[in-house]
UniProtKB/TrEMBL annotation:
<protein>
    <submittedName>
        <fullName>RNA pseudouridine synthase</fullName>
    </submittedName>
</protein>
<feature type="domain" description="Pseudouridine synthase RsuA/RluA-like">
    <location>
        <begin position="93"/>
        <end position="227"/>
    </location>
</feature>
<dbReference type="InterPro" id="IPR006145">
    <property type="entry name" value="PsdUridine_synth_RsuA/RluA"/>
</dbReference>
<dbReference type="InterPro" id="IPR020103">
    <property type="entry name" value="PsdUridine_synth_cat_dom_sf"/>
</dbReference>
<dbReference type="InterPro" id="IPR050188">
    <property type="entry name" value="RluA_PseudoU_synthase"/>
</dbReference>
<dbReference type="Pfam" id="PF00849">
    <property type="entry name" value="PseudoU_synth_2"/>
</dbReference>
Length: 278
């Protein structure tokens, strides 16, 4: 089983063991080194009572009745997490730039490729991290991370009450309308996307758009733009004839809100959402 590429395993402990790592290696057939790596990258869980937590320490003792979960994906675990940039640290929260390919938060197969875990490690594992909003894995851009439960609740409520303005830039196929509001429902729910064309590249027949949202449905921008026949360039899921070598051309480039710490308007923005080549 050492060449196994993907495995999901759930095991209820029947006999006490001084090492969760050794027990999982025995059950799965995977070498202990791979189990340790999976644990470090968040792919192992332990359920004690009603709580399920990521288990990272290899030599954690386990007791009868506890449940171990191993979600092993060799391809995902082989990925190396990039260094991410922190634009601003206001202690209660910080603002980061999430590169394309990095998840907002981890899943059952691990969290080492998530902005939340990367930020936690870069901050020296000394501060709590809480997710208050999300970006698609393929989308790059600005994200806010809270550092205590109270601030996480405040910022989450601000997002829900539309007190935080998020601005996006996208490069889409074709000559998009100068200004349009797309209100096609998504997943049976009201969905509103405001779009302004800021440039049209005739040679490539693409448009650069500035976008704001009134709602936050899954893949809302990508689905709405594809629905009016102007899919985002490089979108692997929506639209057709929109492939490129640069990946998804969608950037969350600005955040504007009343800072709950300084009590003054805060604006964070990328100077060039789509840097031009010299």
């Amino acid at each position: 089983m050492t060449n196994l590429q993907k495995l999901t395993l759930n095991h209820t402990v029947t006999e006490a063991s001084p090492s969760a790592c050794k027990l999982l290696a025995t059950i799965s057939g995977l070498p202990k080194g791979r189990i340790k790596d999976a644990m470090n990258k968040g792919a192992v869980t332990i359920k004690r009572g009603k709580k399920t937590l990521r288990l990272r320490r290899a030599e954690t003792a386990v007791k009868p009745g506890e449940e171990l979960g191993l979600h092993y994906d060799a391809a995902l675990l082989s990925l190396k997490a990039p260094h991410v940039s922190c634009l601003e640290d206001r202690m209660g929260y910080s603002v980061w730039f999430k590169p394309a390919g990095v998840m907002s938060q981890g899943n059952q197969f691990g969290d080492h490729m998530s902005i939340l875990r990367i930020a936690e490690i870069q901050l020296g594992m000394k501060r709590e991290v809480f997710l208050v909003h999300r970006l698609d894995r393929e989308t790059r851009g600005l994200m806010i991370i809270a550092h205590n439960k109270k601030m996480a609740a405040v910022l989450s409520n601000m997002f829900q009450e539309h007190k935080i303005t998020k601005r996006y830039r996208a490069i889409v196929k074709g000559k998009a309308p100068e200004k349009i509001t797309i209100d096609t429902p998504l997943d049976g729910k009201p969905s509103i996307t405001h779009v302004t064309r800021i440039a049209h590249e005739e040679t490539l027949d693409t448009s650069e758009l500035d976008i704001t949202l009134e709602t936050g449905r899954t893949h809302q921008i990508r689905r709405h733009l594809a629905s009016i026949d102007h899919p985002i360039m490089g979108d692997p899921k929506y639209g057709k004839d929109n492939k490129n070598r640069q990946g998804l051309q969608l950037v969350a480039y600005a955040l504007e809100f009343m800072c709950p710490i300084k009590r003054q308007q805060a604006i964070f923005a990328l100077p060039e959402p789509f840097p031009r080549k010299p």
